[in-house]
Amino acid sequence: MTKAEVTSKTVAIKHIKIRSAKTFAEVREQLEAALPELDAQIVEHLSRNDEQAVKVYQDAGAKLSIFLARDHGALLQIAGGRRNAIQYEIGNPLTASKMTRHCLAAALYAPLRVVLFEDEDGSSVFEYDQPSSLFGQFDDERVTEVGRYLDAALEAALLQAAD
What we know:
The protein is of the alpha+beta class. It has one domain (15-162): TATA-Binding Protein. Helices cover 42% and strands 20% of the residues.
């Protein structure tokens, strides 16, 4: 191949919304208390192929961690006012590797993105795209199976914070 080749495909994505009567601050606090920040050492253990440390992390570590949190509400200062809105990257590097070993393109959605914001009524809202619908586009059952696991794990964590 001497020239770049572009292909495209339309995929159906299931979008999820979870509303809570709790305040934004309460939901944020509960989510961040339930999901620890990513342990950067796990990435080091993976890159060094430290199987023993990886096994310990797999057995005792969190199912999901917060990789990153972005304050999108602060970005709205330029539009006339700050809003309560945080975008999270949530996942697990070991879980991601269970997909990307079969399909590197799955890294596009690992970690997952979730937004928490306060709507006009003062309710807190989580929105995200269902992992199995994101990963299902790769037509690899091994990847989709991990996506279904993430469907349940992510929903449980968000509902725990929202309830």
